[in-house]
Amino acid sequence: MTDTGGSAAPATERAAADERAREAADTLRAALGVSDVGTCVILGSGWGPAADQIGETKASVRSAEIPGYRPAAVPGHAGELRLVRSGPHEVLLQMGRTHLYEGHGVASVVHGVRTAAALGVTTLILTNAAGGINPAWWPGTTVLISDHINATGVTPLTGPTFLDMTEVYSAPLRALCHEVTPDLPEGVYMQLRGPAYETPAEVRMAAAVGAQLVGMSTALEAIAAREAGMSVLGISLVTNLAAGLTGERLDHTDVLAVARASAERMGQTLGRVCARL
Ligand code: HPA
What we know:
Elements: H1 10-32, E1 39-43, H2 51-54, E2 56-62, E3 80-86, E4 89-95, H3 106-109, H4 111-118, E5 123-132, E6 142-150, H5 171-180, E7 186-191, H6 200-208, E8 213-215, H7 219-227, E9 231-241, H8 252-276
Parallel strand pairs: 1-4, 1-5, 5-9, 6-7, 7-8
Antiparallel strand pairs: 2-3, 3-4, 5-8, 6-9
Helix pairs in contact: 1-4, 4-7, 5-8
């Protein structure tokens, strides 16, 4: 037998992750009373209250009851999966996510995306709270993610998976967003591992290499979604200017307060997008 350093071979681990996603999808089908779902929205820190604006709730389940989902570890993450009706479609809302900094590995981070793929999802909307590097973006600004820089040092891909990353965030989906909500700015999002916020020097580094947003999620999920062939839309809510750009210190409760204050507006944008898909 090949020595794999005490853990299962990567291909075996990946097969197990895919099996867990299929089990999660089957459990969700039973819990939510659906067969397949075309669209999924992952709601990031503080985005939970936006859920009610997206559509009428048909069914919901605690994520802890679904195989492979971890209990919510972060205040501001609801740990719930909801099926809502938006226009002619049913949409799966994943309220909360697992972050890399929780220490459960990248497969846990992308489990929700792979479960969505196993449910038939072809359009994935990723939302997050982010630090803004563009000083014109005051807290509460909503920014479309045009591209990302994965600065985590890990990837959900294993083996020779030479995935094209030329247009991770779908141009047609961004165009649709601009139609339903004019004047949304766009920016490049850098995912760092966290959980510490960036130092001012790290923020200057991010700016120097072309990022306008910093955060601790989204890029790894977007990679997994593209591997599964989904169209991806990414939306950041700027909850604060990134470290060092103001005299202020960063605090997660302030991040949540800004998100809460913006939730209704963000939910309306998401609702309009989902209804038009
Ligand atoms: N940095 C990283 N993640 C964040 C920030 C930030 O400034 N704000 C909200 N999430």
